[in-house]
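[Meeting: bench + compute handoff]

Bench side (C.D.) handed over the final construct sequence. Compute side (W.E.) agreed to return the predicted structure before the next meeting so the bench team could plan truncations. Sequence as handed over:
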Amino acid sequence: MSCLLSLFSNPVYASISFTALFLAIATALAIRHKNLSDQHRIRLTYAHLAMLLLPLAFFSQHMPCKSIGGLCGVISAFSNSVILALVSIVIIGYFFLPLIYPVLYRTKRQKNGVLFAKLEDLSARLRIRSPRLFIFDGSLPLAFSISGLMPAIFISVGMQELLRGREIDAVLLHELNHISNSAPNLRLLLKIARVFSPFYAIMNTSPILLAGERKADAFVLGVQQTSLYLNSAKGKTEVES
């Protein structure tokens, strides 16, 4: 216990801890600003988590006691475990999720066909790199996307069979906008932050995610110049679900 007291009485550690806590609170509050882009929210969330971990990292590296036993040793081991767990989850989510999802959903990658041609055409018109396209079995009309190193769109067989023509175009445009704005990365990062941050655990992130959905819908409206096909797609999928 004496090692903890001596560390907290250290003005350098105390300054780092209080400054980091202040910045963690500030970034947690800032992320809710309605005019922020998803990319800015991602950066703020990373900064928030870094500020929360900074005192733990400083303690584990500068604890005044050298023994691995006792309270100092336990706290140091806990600090290192939390830091390692967070870094591992972020790396797995960013680098390996694109490899895990196709296996998890037992998908088939599409490299030809009508839907693939639609995605290629829409991506070319929007002047963005076309993401990978995967179809997975399932009667429920579902569609989602992942961004990052290997962006991809996943569409269920039920969705593909239910929608026609420009309705499926609206779904693809919606997901392309999510990918362009890194919305899937933000959604994953918010889930991680809710586990590691007490501030995010009590924060209502639904408005943030809802804003992303509205932004994607507005993008579809801007490209198609009508809400007819998007509303029709939503109506059909809501009834089927």
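W.E. noted at the follow-up: The longest helix spans residues 70-104. C.D. will use this when planning the next construct.
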